[in-house]
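One such shown below:
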Amino acid sequence: MRPPLDSTRLADLGIEVLPATGSTNAVVADRARDGASPWTVVVTEHQTAGRGRLDRTWDTPDRAALTFSTLLRPDREGGDWPWLPLLTGVAVVGALRDAGVPATLKWPNDVMIGGRKTAGILAERVETPAGPAAVVGIGLNVHQTQAELPVPTATSVELATGSAPDRTELLVAILGRLREQYDAWTAGGGASVRPAYLAACGTVGQEVRVALPGGEEHVGTATDVDAVGRLLVGGRAVAAGDVVHVRPIG
C-alpha cells in the first residue's frame, strides 16, 4: 500500500490536497482568476488529465507521484518569464539530490535519472483581474512501476534507485528550493539563476540532435544556455517554444 500525503501537515503549510483532479494547473489557474495569492499550491493524489508540452496528456496512478501546481505573480518583464520552467527544474533537481537521488536536467526542464525522464514541468501564463500570473505545474514519478509509466523511456525515483523519499517531505523540499530560485530570479533575472541551471543541466557539453517544426533538424554540440534560457547548439540559439525535442546523439 502506497502511503498517502500527510494532508494535515500540508494543510498547516497552506497547501491544498485533492484526492483526485483532472489537472492541478487548471485548478490553480481558476484560483488565480478568482484572486488567489502568490504561492497558492494545490497537490493531488491522482491526476487524471495531466498536461505537458505539445499538448501531451497522461494519468498518474493513485499515490504514485507528486503532482502539484504553484501560483506565482512575477513582477519581472514578460521577456524574463521563459526562465520560470528552467528555474523550477533546478529546484526539483536540487531537492532530489538533497535526498540522495542522482538527478539531472535535460534542457529545457525535463528531470532525468540515469538518462530516463522522471519529472516534467509545465509553466503557463494566466490572465487575471490582478494582472498576468504564472501557474507552474510539476509531475514527478515517485513510486510507479515500469508498467505504470506513460512511455517506456520514463522512470520513477523508486524504479531508478530502489527506494524513494517520503512524498510529503519531498514536496516541502521542492517548494523550499523553488522559493530560493524564484527569489533569486526576482532579484536579478536569468543571470542570477543561470549558474545553478548550468550546474544541474546534463545537456550542455553533449552532441545533440534538435528536431524543429516542419521536419527540420539541427545537429551540433550544446555549448551553453544564454541569458534568456535558449540552448546554444553549434552556434545557433534554440528556444523551448520552437523545439519539438532535443536528443543526445548515440
Remarks:
- The chain has a mean pLDDT of 94.
- The chain has two domains: 7-200, 207-248.
